[in-house]
Amino acid sequence: MYLQELHIQNLRVFAEASATFLSPERARGAEERNAEERKPEYPNLNLVLGNNGTGKSTLLKAIALACLGPLAEKFSPYLLVRRSGKPTPRKRASAIVATGLPEDRAVVRARFQCTWQDVGEKKPSDTSAALAWAFHINRTGDEESVELLYAPKGEVPEATRALWAPIHQNSSPAFLTVGYGATRRVDTDPNAPTPAQRLRTLPLRHQRIQSLFTEGYTLVPLGHWLPQLKARNPGRFKQVFHRINEVLPGDIRFTDRLDGTGEYLFEQQGARVPFAALSDGCRAYIGWVADLLYHICFGCPSGVKLVDNCGIVLVDEVDLHLHPDWQRTVLPRLAQAFPRLQFIATTHSPIVVGTLQRGNLWVCEPAPDGNGSVLAQKETGVHGLNADQILLTEYFGLKTSRAAPKERQLDRIAAAAERKVPGQGAAFLRSLVTPLEDEDPHD
Amino acid sequence: MISYPISHAQLRDAIRARDAQWLAKARRATAACVAAGKYVKEDADGKTIDGLWGDIKEVFIRLQHGKCCYCERLLESPAFGRIEHDVEHYRPKSRLRNWFTPAVKAAFPDWPAALGQSGAQAKGYHRFAFDPRNYATSCKTCNSTLKSDYFPVAGTPKLAAASPAGAKREKPYLIFPVGDGDEPAESLIQFEGVLAQPVHAADTDLFRHWRARVTIRFFRLNRTAPEGTAGTAEGRENLYRGRAEALSALADCLDAIETSSNVALLEARQEKVERLTAPASPHTNCCRSFLRLWAEPATRAQAVALWLAAETYLQSQQL
Ligand SMILES: [Zn+2]
Asked: What is the tens place of the pLDDT at every residue in A262-291?
């Protein structure tokens, strides 16, 4: 399954926002508007950036809930409905007029594309099916609940219900969605709950996105499942081994050796160190990648390669604790190691942003009317710029950047003033505020 | 850019008041450089002399009212300003880089054949490394990023000159705004709105015209430097924003003075005009240029148009 479009209303900082996402399937379509979008270098990457509090994490949560489909009703999201101060009767009324919604209700609409693995096929194929989905999140006091939008009583239409059916089976590879919150961590305590124990407390598909909603939620450690996989299915173990090394930067290597306590060893500058001894950045990164591999392996039909698995991966703050050198390669490496997964990640890092093209990037920014946040895609790209240059672009809002033709026009006016051509002073100031297309080309 | 006049004797007095030993130290340091025939960081006894100028930075910060000598931005006060202000060596002490690269030449299509363009030199003006007449304070952008070790001249660099006055025959392009060694900056550069421009036209005074042109481009007082030189190819937005703010405050005042009937308010506004056009305010040259346009009936309409355009620009920056 891939997410194609998302529309949200009244959700936390968003009064209303919508976005379209790149996905491996979508990139093959011929419907795109311009050359860059038709053939992005990494068609499976979507990166959302924005300042703290502009709603990046909220967006990932909304997507995660949408991906749960009918299972979302059993999930209790925490404080997702937009709160805009004390609800006075007048304010309530105006809120309903503005969004057509009462203030205690958020709406999420999504359009997905289902792939072979969602519609029950056992082998990769080009099969695809569209799936439209929508739900409400209602708030009563401090409690929030998910209500499906299709019918007053939350009934799902027949065709949609049939498509969603496999989501009720843990072992099905359909609708693979995993999410990682900014406080993700791996429990290195040997007494941490095993995957089987985890299942008794939380349904598998909820587990996969729980990290986005629960502070400090622990991920499945490698030692809990990889040794068993090696014994049971050496071929697949080999694939996991290679995937991990593919996403690691050159200066660190995953070995398939365990230390005395059952922890996997990594090779760093010639020395072997257990997972727990790695730096914060290494652990935060390897931790979620390993958890992702666990969940892919869990449902992957036999005879299908791990890389052929489709699904959605949500990562909040993908640059978390990462060394700048890693930030430069993290997304390209992930995109190449998992070409059939759709990544939707957030970041604060200009270095990470600089590795992608315009079509891969969405910005959470203050709404023009000052009312919360909106999602926007920018006119200019930043691919290949250095971090300092990117910080000066509109992606990071440190200054208004002007398009190159505008800069050249300002240069021409200033140069004329320096030659003492009269009248350039006012022309320059006016040019600073007039968009290029509004101007007389003969000016 | 405006000048901060001070005689050599007055400058030495101010330095002595700050640090009674400094001039003696500087004399020995200069002797060490002269003996070595180049700029050296240690004297013959192995004592560090490099950076000695930092001890009298405050003298120049005060003299320049805390402003950068080239871009006229207001920086921190002396108490906190040490980190923000660089001591600028007008004539570079250890080497000269070639500013007239092909890209720079291409950016001046109307460059006159009569004016020379100096190139690189392996040595700098080591005799002036510890001469306070060669010092000013400037912002990091003007000094570190833009000035660097460049010193374009129209003649032949006089590296062996004994005093800055003796070196003048090399015909420097860059204007030096501190002391009494150069003519007043305002007789070379004026402003139209937020844009700097030469006072003299090329056909009335060729060299003065080009001194202004080079200085404006060199420090990017208006816009980009040519491609291939240091920094990014963008305008120094802060500069025209600061100038627009100053110009807007001044124009407001001038306009109110003409309509004011309250004597006390009138006086307050007249004082404000004086303050905004005094050397201690940022962007003094810009403000004084505007005041001249405003005061002259023939150019009043031009001044009003500049004012309105500046207001629109400032409004757009609020978003
Ligand atoms: Zn400056």
From this structure: 889 999 888 899 988 888 888 889 999 999
Q: Distance, CA B219 to ligand 1 centroid (Å)?
A: 8
**Within 13 Å and on the Cβ side, how many CA atoms surround A342?**
28
pLDDT higher than threshold 50 for residue B232: no
- Residue A88 three-state SS: coil
Q: Find the CB nearest B216 among A418, A430, A432.
A: A418
| Residue of B267, B269, B255 whose CA lies nearest to B300 | B255
Burial B93-111 (b: 16+ CB within 10 A, else e): bbbbeebbeeebeebbeeb
User: For the segment A61-82, what is each residue's pLDDT rounded down to a tens digit?
Assistant: 999 999 998 888 877 666 566 6
Tokens of A243: 């995937």
> Which residue from A407, A420, A432 is facing B234, i.e. has the nearest CB?
A407
β pairing state of A252-258 and A264-268: antiparallel
Distance (Å, whole) CA B65 – CA A4: 59
Q: How many residues does chain A have?
A: 443
Pairwise CA distance, residues B10 & B4, whole Å: 12
What ipTM was predicted for this assembly? 0.90
**A39 three-state secondary structure:** coil
Taken in order B216, B221, B223, B229, is the CA torsion positive or negative? positive
Q: Of B63, B70, B243, whose CA–CA distance to B147 is shortest?
A: B70
Which residues are near ligand 1, the ion (C-beta closer than 5 Å)?
Answer: B 68, 70-71, 139, 142
Cα gap A373→A365, rounded to integer Å: 5
Dihedral angle over CA of A265, A270, A276, A279, nearest 10: -140
- B127 Cα–ligand 1 center, Å: 25
Residues 6+ apart with CB under 8 A from B28: B43, B49
Dihedral angle at the C-alpha atoms of B294, B296, B300, B305, nearest 10 degrees?
-60
Q: Is the dihedral of CA A404, A405, A410, A415 positive or negative?
A: positive
Minimal-distance CA residue of chain A relative to B201: A420
- Please report residues of A whose CB lies closer than 8 A to that of B316: 432-433
What torsion, rounded to 10 degrees, do the Cα atoms B170, B171, B173, B178 define?
90
| CB-nearest partner of B197 from A399, A400, A417 | A417
Pairing of strands A105-114, A252-258: unpaired
The model's confidence at residue A134, banded by pLDDT at 50, 70 and 90, is confident
Residues of chain B found within 8 Å of residue A422, distances taken between Cβ atoms: 192
Q: Do residues B248 and B256 lie in contact, with contact meaning Cβ atoms separated by under 8 Å?
A: no
The structure's pTM equals: 0.54
Residue pair B152/B117 in contact by the 8 Å Cβ criterion: yes
Residues in chain B within 8 Å Cβ distance of A415: 223
Q: pLDDT tens, A208-252?
A: 998 998 888 888 888 889 999 999 999 999 999 999 999 998 789
- Give the Cα separation of A278 and A263 in Å (integer): 12
